[in-house]
Amino acid sequence: MWTASVPWFAGTLDTVSYLLICMFPIFLAKLANGIFIDLTSYKNLMISKKQILRVIDEKEETGNMEPFINKTHEITFKDVDFSYVQGGESVLKKIAFTAGNQKLTAIVGDSGSGKSTILNLVSKYYEAQDGMISIGGKPIENIAAERVLEQISMVDQDVFLFNDTIRDNIRYARPDATDEEIEAACKEANCDGFIRKMEKGYDTPTGENGNLLSGGERQRLSIARAILKNSPILLLDEATANLDIENELAVKQAISNLLKQKKTVVMIAHTLSIVKNADEILVVSSGKIVEHGAHDDLIKKGGKYATMWKAEEQLSV
Ligand SMILES: Nc1ncnc2c1ncn2[C@@H]1O[C@H](COP(=O)(O)OP(=O)(O)OP(=O)(O)O)[C@@H](O)[C@H]1O
Ligand SMILES: [Mg+2]
């Protein structure tokens, strides 16, 4: 711009050319900015395209859609291997156990040892890479996940709630349930009290994924769903660790009401006192079952469970 000013002052450059020369750098900067924005949008578009193609390439659900009805509901794992990433490190290694029909089987073990993964395979959120899983003696590998899930109630660490009223969020477990049945399930799940205290009671919206409710309240709603569904199998991922004492007691009470129903229960427990009366306790460590048996036998054995039990006793003193 300065270089062009000299001939313009001297009268050898006309005003229009001088102005054009002055605007040139601005034009260049705008052009560079435009190219940068276009390139960024193109890159984002390519990322989205890759993700869409991945969804399209996903294997279609091919399982048998016939109703999956069994006389008994024991769950058996035979040498099950599983890894979340193909060819990656195994999260479950040769897992073998039977959760007896209408018995309470507890799974305990360190964080990250593979407890929730075992339940994810029973409910067919994922497929085992090796070994066999069966319910009532029938392998579930070729049964549609939808059909298997009809037999299962799952009380999970992460409860999914729709942006809808509390009543309809619970009815989701059994669409034909009456209002009275929903309220009875909520009483058993220890949530009737806090629901009635809300301004609109059962018609209160839960907010986007239940963000208007506390963790303990969300868990109790999920227990109410399980009570209402009344399916023969119950998978429970007990997660009372992050709750305050009042909520923890309310959730534990709700769980013990839930366990009164006669079902095949597999329950992951983070506190051992809750599993003391289980028919069978599986102790998982680094993707393997390292011990199993009833509480008294495991204490006598003096292994990992006994160490965990002693540690918990010391904490509660
Ligand atoms: N969706 C996933 N994708 C990849 N890896 C996963 C996934 N879910 C869990 N894992 C990994 O698998 C291993 C077992 O996880 P899992 O959730 O089964 O442990 P857990 O015993 O339930 O732990 P916690 O007591 O903390 O709930 C962990 O190393 C975890 O990081
Ligand atoms: Mg878990």
UniProtKB/TrEMBL annotation:
**What PROSITE patterns is this protein classified in?**
ABC_TRANSPORTER_1, ABC_TRANSPORTER_2
Topology with regard to the membrane?
A: Multi-pass membrane protein
UniProt GO molecular function: ATP binding; ATP hydrolysis activity; ATPase-coupled lipid transmembrane transporter activity
Cellular component GO terms, alphabetical:
plasma membrane
UniProt KW keywords:
ATP-binding, Membrane, Nucleotide-binding, Transmembrane, Transmembrane helix
**Location in or out of the cell:** Cell membrane
The source's domain of life comes to Bacteria
The ABC transporter domain, residue ranges: 75-311
Q: Which residues cross the membrane?
A: 16-39
Q: What is the protein name for this chain?
A: ABC-type multidrug transport system, ATPase and permease component
Source organism per UniProt: Gottschalkia purinilytica (Clostridium purinilyticum)
